[in-house]
């Protein structure tokens, strides 16, 4: 039987693996897509203490290699549920695994707008990754939707390639850093569309524009676009663990800074947990806290 | 069989005129998800029983091909059969889904 099964091989999960392995425990990581988590989409990480600048891919690769060298085992399987008990069980699409303790590090994924044709338009004008896809919109007209740091960074990045960048945000204030907003204001090809909600995606086979609703004036207007970059935040994917594990209204796992869930021996680490700051550093920190608590439980 | 590096010079011969389906991975070195997907596409290529082949298009080197096939998001996978795109997918997907694309 494995000592600790970690579900999710992003920054939190891999950090937990490193701590648990160094504490002499056996570790099995379960991942449905690829190791590294969301950070692989980030071109430059410049806020991880001790590392001036590194690409998200290189950061993830380093983290994975570190865990692998310590003996981490990674299985690409989708977890469909967990059972509590003296021996805990992790059920996946292809089997069942027993362990003493579980760390949930399932992260979060891009939140969709939830509008008609959104899925259809992915690859035909809609993207969730400006740094991946921005270059294909060179000299064209695009919009970024959102008000957090990702949206601000995306708008700045795209303004270097695109003829025009609309920044559509539902409020008139940004959650993202003020320094970043100032940089955007200096750019001549960025236009702020504030207090505005996208209500419709326009176009037949590919996106041709969006309809936005101005909350102040109550008016609707259409903006012609070649591309729309959606950066309205993240959402967790923890439904498979409920009702055993308590989730909050947004679907995040209820757990404090000690990473303990409502079930003894099951811990939550990283973006999937209720918390206010979701950063690489806090994901790594959660990994350490959850791993050491899981090690103590498994003894 | 290793994945073939596709260029505008060999695309017609290797892909469009191929007797067997060809999985084409459009990617770039600066795209994190592409670099994650790449090794999985390579594995699928290595595991081919000869009923399909796999090629890779670096969109920086082969802008014309990327444009011709309307690439707006990467990583993008397209399966060509008889010179036509018969299946496609954008973004990071797990290995079993890559293989499923080849069930044509």
Provide an overview of this structure.
Chain A is α/β, with parallel strands linked by helices. Chain A has 7 helices and 17 strands. Chain A has helices at 11-22, 56-69, 118-121, 130-133, 149-159, 178-185, 280-298; strands spanning 2-7, 27-31, 73-76, 79-83, 88-92, 95-104, 108-110, 126-127, 141-145, 164-168, 190-193, 196-202, 209-214, 220-224, 227-230, 234-236, 266-268. In chain A, the strands form 4 sheets. In chain A, strands 1, 2, 3, 4, 5, 6 and 17 form a 7-stranded mixed beta sheet that branches. Chain A has a 5-stranded parallel beta sheet with strand order 8-15-9-10-11. In chain A, helix 1 packs parallel to helix 2 (56-69), helix 1 runs parallel beside helix 7 (280-298) and helix 5 (149-159) packs parallel to helix 6. The two termini of chain A are 13 Å apart. The model of chain A has no long low-confidence stretch (mean pLDDT 95). A 5-stranded mixed beta sheet of chain B has the order 1-3-2-4-5. Chain B has a single domain (4-101), classed as Glutaredoxin (3-Layer(aba) Sandwich). In chain B, 33% of the residues lie in helices and 26% in strands. With 104 residues, chain B is α/β, with parallel strands linked by helices. The chains are: A alpha/beta (299), B alpha/beta (104). At the A-B interface, helix 2 and helix 4 of A face helix 2 of B.
């Amino acid at each position: 039987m494995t000592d600790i099964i970690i579900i999710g091989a992003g920054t939190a999960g891999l950090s937990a693996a490193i701590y648990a392995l160094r504490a002499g425990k056996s570790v099995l990581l379960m991942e449905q897509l690829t190791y590294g988590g969301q950070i692989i989409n980030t071109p430059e990480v410049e806020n991880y203490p001790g590392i001036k600048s590194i690409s998200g891919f290189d950061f993830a690769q380093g983290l994975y290699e570190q865990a692998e060298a310590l003996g981490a085992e990674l299985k690409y399987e989708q977890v469909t549920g967990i059972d509590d008990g003296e021996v805990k069980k992790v059920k996946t699409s292809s089997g069942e695994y027993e362990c003493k303790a579980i760390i949930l590090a399932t992260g979060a994924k891009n939140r969709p707008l939830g509008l008609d044709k959104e899925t259809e338009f992915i690859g035909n004008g809609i993207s969730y990754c400006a740094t991946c896809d921005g270059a294909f919109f060179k000299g064209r007209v695009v919009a970024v939707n959102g008000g957090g740091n990702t949206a601000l960074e995306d708008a700045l990045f795209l303004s270097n390639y695109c003829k025009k960048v609309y920044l559509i945000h539902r409020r008139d204030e940004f959650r993202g850093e003020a320094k970043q907003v100032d940089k955007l204001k200096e750019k001549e090809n960025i236009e702020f569309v504030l207090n505005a909600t996208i209500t419709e995606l326009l176009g037949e086979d590919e996106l041709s524009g969006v309809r936005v609703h101005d909350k102040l004036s109550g008016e609707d207007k259409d903006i012609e676009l070649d591309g729309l970059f959606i950066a309205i935040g993240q959402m967790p994917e923890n439904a498979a663990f409920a009702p055993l594990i308590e989730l909050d209204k947004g679907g995040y796992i209820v757990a404090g800074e000690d990473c303990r869930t409502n079930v003894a021996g099951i811990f939550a680490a990283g973006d999937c947990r209720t918390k206010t700051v979701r950063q690489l550093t806090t994901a790594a920190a959660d990994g350490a806290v959850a791993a050491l608590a899981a090690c103590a439980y498994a003894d | 069989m290793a994945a073939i590096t596709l260029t505008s010079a060999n695309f017609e011969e290797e892909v469009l005129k191929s007797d067997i389906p060809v999985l084409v991975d459009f990617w770039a070195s600066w795209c994190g998800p592409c670099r994650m997907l790449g090794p999985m596409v390579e594995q699928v290529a290595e595991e081919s029983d000869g009923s399909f082949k796999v090629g890779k298009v670096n969109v920086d080197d082969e802008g014309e091909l990327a444009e011709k096939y309307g690439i707006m998001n990467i990583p993008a996978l397209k399966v060509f059969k008889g010179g036509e795109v018969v299946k496609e997918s954008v973004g990071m997907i797990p290995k079993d889904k890559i293989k499923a694309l080849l069930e044509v």
